[in-house]
Amino acid sequence: MGDAAERWRERQLGRGIPDHVLRYAPADPWTHDPADFTPPAEPADTPSHRAARAIAERAAAWTCAGASVLDVGCGGGDAVFGAAWPEPSPVARVVGVDRQADMLAVFAAAARARGLPHGTVHGSWPDAAGDAGRHDVVVCHHVLHNVVDLPPFLAALTGAVRTRGGIGGVVVEMLTEHPLAWLDPLWERFHDVVRPPSATHDDAVAVLREQQGVAPEVLTWTRAARLPHDAAWVTRRLCLPADRVEEVAAALVDLPPRRTDAVTLTWSP
């Protein structure tokens, strides 16, 4: 393992929940509620959506048919449906990969509502790469900071691209730092756990360069401010019982606003 990959691994391991805390968690702190991932009818106009659509348009023009788009860690499919909007869409088929079956149900329902042929693969990446197949565009939004061993994850993203006529690519969206870094003061307050510095998008780019010799296009941008997570959500993330929600709510008042800087990484095999 190279220096960049080891640095990413060490920083990600430092973001884990200590065993002595996780052991007594009253609820799974990692599972997401599918209701929070229903894609909007009209996707936001973001650099990531535009990048994926541009690749899909080139692929559709080359083949005189629509492009195939794979969404890794798809949730409800916001990433892939953003590439397929607005009409007329260059996307002919979408495939979603997710470790939560209930997320795939949301994804499939959204694809049907949009009249898009679709497939789903239940599993974690890169283990599910063989079942996912190869596609013109591979999108992956806000998943990298869930990954400890980054080289095989990124290699499988690149390997899932079907290059025809030199067309095809990967579009990754992530935050500049771990998406839960804003909760670090609360980990120290409630558990006396001091978090190390977060892995950043620069660390991910360094792994790509080191492991694949890839220099991705890097675009930083500011995404729309999100509504703050409620105290009950934060309480579960902190592995605290529900009877401490009011205490957590009071602590949230003292936190600075969440950062809104995002990054789009785009590369081709």
UniProtKB/TrEMBL annotation:
Keywords: Methyltransferase, Transferase. GO terms for biological process: methylation. GO terms for molecular function: methyltransferase activity. InterPro entries: Methyltransf_25, SAM-dependent_MTases_sf. It comes from the Bacteria. It holds the Pfam family Methyltransf_25. Coiled coil: none annotated. The keyword Transferase applies. Residues 69-163 form the Methyltransferase domain. This is 2-polyprenyl-3-methyl-5-hydroxy-6-metoxy-1, 4-benzoquinol methylase. It comes from Pseudonocardia alni. The lineage of its organism: Bacteria, Bacillati, Actinomycetota, Actinomycetes, Pseudonocardiales.
